[in-house]
């Protein structure tokens, strides 16, 4: 995509897509931020870009939403503004329609306790590959679907945060899954499993701050960097847990669709991701994290 300030795009925000306008762009390694009407600004005036200097980032305004939701995102969350992606947005809107849920404010309550019981509506989410005429479908049950939607609501509407560091990290969850899955596999299949899981962990570490965090969570991430909870020896996959892992897994079909991976390998990955989601769905009581209320100071910083 050849984007410039003023470009219209679609952007992922949690389980949904929104129409958005690119207001500013920072190109990897550049000392300036591109603004509307061909203007530029000094990158040092944007403290949020301190840890994002070496990648392309885009400051988006979501159409019809208050400017408090404006945020810097990576290219992974952005889709071209065309009829195909408009149709995809409509599909996601339809699939994720749910009645509002009455929830208590207590951060100690699990999202599973606070949500409605899952209905009978199918949670299959088809994502059309944009570069190749093939349909990728990632199947997951209503438990996973409702967790994703509740997660979005807790963070973006209730202004709560997932408690970090997680009791069970992404690495721990995938290690447990590997121990469960490996005994039924031969050596070749075990090698494939290791490759898929290692790739998932690597992509999680590379993409967390670009496409897996909601705007309200960015300040929490920066605080973890400042405290060196996240560092060269302790990557995000050893700090964040199930909620953020699920956000990554359900976006993988769209990521794979834009890759050069061959169809056979792609199907192997999708099938393994589905097995992970099936297994996770039966172990939610073990791996689900809790949501915490934030302080007024955090709330003020997160809105800057």
UniProtKB/TrEMBL annotation:
Residue ranges constituting the MSL3 chromodomain-like domain according to the UniProt record: 51-93
Claim: Cell inner membrane is one of the keywords in the record: no
A Gene Ontology biological process term: regulation of DNA-templated transcription
Domain MRG: 133-287
Keyword set includes Transcription: yes
Record key words, sorted: Chromatin regulator, Nucleus, Transcription, Transcription regulation
GO cellular component, one term: NuA4 histone acetyltransferase complex
Alphabetical list of Pfam families matching this protein: MRG, MSL3_chromo-like
Subcellular location: Nucleus
Positions of region (Disordered): 86-127
Taxonomic superkingdom: Eukaryota
UniProt family annotation: Belongs to the MRG family.
Protein's UniProt name: Chromatin modification-related protein EAF3
Source species: Diutina rugosa
